């Protein structure tokens, strides 16, 4: 049978891995897909690098736009990244009748609605398994494997850089700044790590999962995003003493009032499997009404893990290449005319539990003053940890865990607590999730 011809845009880490795995496992992949899949042209600005990577096994060009309009190319694989030229290339490929495979979570979270509509109108597919959690097949699980379920919530460790940093801070008791430098030295963090450590990368990914889970358009601009750069090693230590681990989670939840869409550091009970995901690994927990909780775990980045997802998409597209567009799996899990623009809850209206750390003066009546403020805001305490001051010190840490409350209530309480004369400095606040039924 006639091979499927692929045009690869970008042959960096993931592109190189895709080329290598596709060559190495060509026979096995062809048996699964029903025909050979071959990369016939690679576009990259660095022609020397592309030449070395491909070893003369395909054509190399510096003109990506020539690839997306090439009549011999059936599928375009976009691995350039970013929002600008990648968007132009993907839309041009779709307009040229090409199917598209992409690992570009930023592109889809911000321009996915436009891209999927263009693909729907043209009758082509856009596949994006590699955009979330690297080699972990979470897109297929949510879109297809859990299609019988009304998905209730998703919570995921979906950024390996931040998970590595938090694991090292917990294991070694080091500061955020010290571990970030080590992560950069080891190649886990970029020279400019802002997208990772400030939660933007995770927000792109949870935006995609939220849209798939609840049948909504992409709503990245409404996501609440908070990173880990302000986390203190002492809070990781106290959380551990209280039976919790701190992870940067992407969370989306269906509520009667709308969808929660948020990324922030979160205390999780140490007994939960997801709390024990360490290093640069990813894990996504999905709660469905029929199946209950399911956990998906694996490498969220790297050349061959991500290539695994890219090639799985290539196989899927190849199988459905000649199928009636109306009978393909919908891009967004739900039929295009069945998407509903559910509102995203403002963070003030989100309900969760909280970890509060206060620096207080060592004198009688401190706890009573603090609990009175919480009681006035109808916030109840679940647990408490009170540290004795060191020798010669007159201040101590007071740690409180609250029961479920609305964000705006805790914000009001914190503002009042910080004005108490017995409280020194700012209150540290971290959200908590039980991640149980």
Sum up the overall morphology in one term. elongated
Fraction in beta strands: 25-35%
Quaternary status: single chain
Mean pLDDT: 96
CATH superfamily of the largest domain: NAD(P)-binding Rossmann-like Domain
CATH architectural type of the largest domain: 3-Layer(aba) Sandwich
The level 1 CATH classification of the largest domain is Alpha Beta
Poorly predicted ranges: none
Number of helices: 15
Q: Helical content, roughly?
A: 25-40%
Cα separation of the termini: 49 Å
Number of strands: 17
Helix and strand content put the structural class at: alpha/beta
The overall number of domains is 3
State the major sheet.
11 strands, mixed
**At the third CATH level, what is the topology name of the largest domain?**
Rossmann fold
Radius of gyration equals 24 Å
Helix/strand layout:
Layout: E1 4-9, H1 13-24, H2 26-33, E2 37-43, H3 47-54, E3 59-61, H4 64-68, E4 75-78, H5 85-95, E5 99-102, H6 105-122, E6 126-127, H7 138-145, E7 151-157, H8 160-172, H9 176-186, H10 194-197, H11 200-214, E8 224-225, H12 233-241, E9 244-255, E10 258-269, E11 281-288, E12 292-299, H13 303-319, E13 351-361, H14 366-376, E14 381-386, E15 395-402, E16 405-406, H15 407-417, E17 423-432
Parallel strand pairs: 1-2, 1-4, 2-3, 4-5, 5-6, 8-10, 10-17
Antiparallel strand pairs: 7-9, 7-11, 9-10, 11-12, 13-15, 13-16, 13-17, 14-15
Helix pairs in contact: 1-13, 2-13, 5-6, 6-11, 8-9, 14-15
């Amino acid at each position: 049978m006639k091979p499927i011809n692929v045009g690869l845009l970008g042959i960096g880490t993931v592109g190189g891995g895709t080329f290598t795995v596709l060559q190495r496992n060509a026979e096995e992949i062809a048996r699964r897909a029903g025909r050979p899949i071959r990369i016939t042209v690679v576009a990259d600005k660095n022609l020397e690098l592309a030449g070395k990577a491909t070893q003369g096994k395909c054509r190399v060009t510096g003109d990506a736009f020539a690839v997306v309009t090439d009549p011999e190319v059936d599928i375009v694989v976009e691995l350039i990244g970013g929002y600008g030229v990648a968007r132009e290339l993907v839309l041009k490929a779709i307009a040229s009748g090409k199917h598209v495979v992409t690992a570009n979570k930023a592109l889809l979270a911000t321009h996915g609605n436009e891209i999927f509509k263009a693909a729907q109108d043209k009758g082509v597919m856009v596949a994006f398994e590699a955009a979330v959690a690297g080699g972990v097949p979470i897109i297929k699980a949510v879109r297809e494997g859990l299609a019988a379920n009304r998905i209730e919530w998703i919570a995921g460790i979906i950024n390996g850089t931040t998970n590595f940093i938090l694991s090292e801070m917990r294991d070694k008791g080091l500061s955020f700044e010290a571990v970030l430098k080590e992560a950069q030295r080891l190649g886990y963090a970029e020279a400019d790590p802002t997208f990772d450590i400030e939660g933007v990368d995770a927000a792109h990914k949870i935006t995609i999962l939220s849209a798939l889970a609840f049948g909504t358009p992409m709503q990245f601009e409404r996501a609440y995003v908070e990173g880990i750069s302000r986390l203190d090693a002492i809070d990781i230590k106290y959380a551990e003493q209280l039976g919790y681990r701190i992870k940067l989670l992407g969370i989306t939840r269906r509520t009667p009032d709308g969808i929660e869409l948020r990324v922030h550091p979160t205390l999780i009970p140490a007994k939960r499997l997801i709390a024990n995901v360490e290093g640069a690994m990813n894990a996504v927990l999905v709660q469905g009404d029929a199946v209950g909780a399911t956990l998906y775990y694996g490498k969220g980045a790297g050349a061959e893990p991500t290539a695994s997802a890219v090639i799985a998409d290539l196989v899927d597209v190849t199988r459905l290449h000649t199928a009636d567009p109306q009978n393909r799996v919908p891009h967004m899990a739900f039929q295009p005319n069945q998407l509903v623009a559910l509102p995203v809850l403002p963070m003030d209206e989100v309900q969760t539990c909280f970890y509060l750390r206060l620096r207080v003066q060592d004198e009688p009546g401190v706890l009573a003053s603090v609990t009175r403020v919480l009681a006035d805001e109808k916030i109840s305490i679940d647990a408490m940890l009170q540290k004795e001051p060191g020798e010669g010190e007159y201040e101590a840490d007071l740690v409180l865990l609250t029961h479920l409350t609305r964000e705006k209530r805790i914000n009001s309480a914190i503002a009042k607590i910080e004005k108490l004369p017995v409280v020194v400095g700012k209150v540290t606040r971290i959200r908590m999730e039980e991640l149980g039924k």
